[in-house]
Specification:
Blueprint: H1 4-39, H2 49-63, H3 68-88, H4 94-101, H5 114-120, H6 138-156, E1 170-172, E2 182-185, E3 193-197, E4 214-218, E5 224-228
Antiparallel strand pairs: 1-3, 2-3, 4-5
Length: 229
């Protein structure tokens, strides 16, 4: 028969092992949470459901449904632009950056072309946009739309790789002409062309002051400022 001393010793060993497992589990969860916070390009409070759908609309508007690399590059470029703008205008939101940079998002509804209109009507619930073309099946595109929304969630969680490696500040089509200090960079096989900004005074870069591109940002808290785009 086991002595009381041995019974107590076994109990302490079991309790110690259980405690060790709990501690290791907690450390793993804390490390995962810390990695998520380090990787997340945008704070959680800036990624409301409404902001997420605007980002997804921007991906579709600028690159179509299936251009995953473009979608990632666009999201990270917009995040970089938001981080830079908020240093001077702390009240600016990520949604404002999206809506004032992506094509057509800053226009009144009456000024939109048919494609811009149905893009603006894409929604989190997956309902068919009212302006959707009658001769195009929505069910197939709904699958693609949900994949774009999932891509936005991956971006929010810091799980969407930046193909431009932190260098992009602008993008445009092949027909667009870069201005000022914009210089083309390689982000892989993308539909759009992505650009970095050459430092002022660099040999191959002209001063952005001579070719400034500006737009008006209207935000909450009475924010109104001219900014380089």
């Amino acid at each position: 028969m086991m002595s009381l001393r041995k019974i107590f010793e076994c109990d302490w060993i079991v309790l110690a092992l259980v405690g060790l497992v709990i501690l290791l589990s907690a450390l793993i969860h804390c490390d995962a949470g810390a990695q998520r916070l380090r990787k997340a390009p945008i704070p959680e409070n800036q990624l409301t459901p409404q902001t997420r759908v605007w980002l997804a609309r921007g991906m579709v508007s600028e690159a179509g449904w299936l251009a995953e690399r473009d979608h990632a590059a666009i999201a990270h470029t917009l995040a970089r632009r938001w981080q830079a703008r908020r240093e001077r205008w702390p009240g600016v939101t990520f949604e404002q950056i999206i809506r004032h940079y992506c094509a057509g998002f800053y226009l009144k509804e009456s000024a939109l072309d048919p494609r811009q209109l149905w893009v603006r009507q894409l929604n989190l619930d997956g309902f068919q946009p009212a302006a959707w073309p009658r001769n195009v099946r929505w069910d197939k595109h709904l699958i693609w739309w949900r994949q774009v929304l999932q891509r936005v969630d991956q971006f929010a969680e810091g799980q969407l790789h930046d193909p431009c490696r932190g260098q992009s500040w602008h993008w445009g089509g092949l027909m667009d002409t870069p201005e000022g200090r914009m210089e083309r960079i390689d982000c892989g096989d993308t539909k759009n062309v992505f650009y970095t900004l050459v430092p002022k005074g660099a040999p191959n870069g002209s001063s952005v002051d001579s070719q400034r591109v500006v737009y008006r940002l209207r935000g909450s808290e009475g924010l109104s400022a001219l900014q380089e785009r």
